[in-house]
Amino acid sequence: MSSNERHNRRDEIISLKHRTWGYNVPAVDIDFLLCEYDNRKAVALIEYRHYNGNIMTDSANMLALIDLADRAGLPAFCVQYKYETDDGTLWKEATVDTPAEFRIIPLNPIAEGVYGNWDTKGFLPEPVFVAWLHHIRGRRV
Question: Structural domain of residue 14, as residue ranges?
Answer without folding.
Answer: 1-30
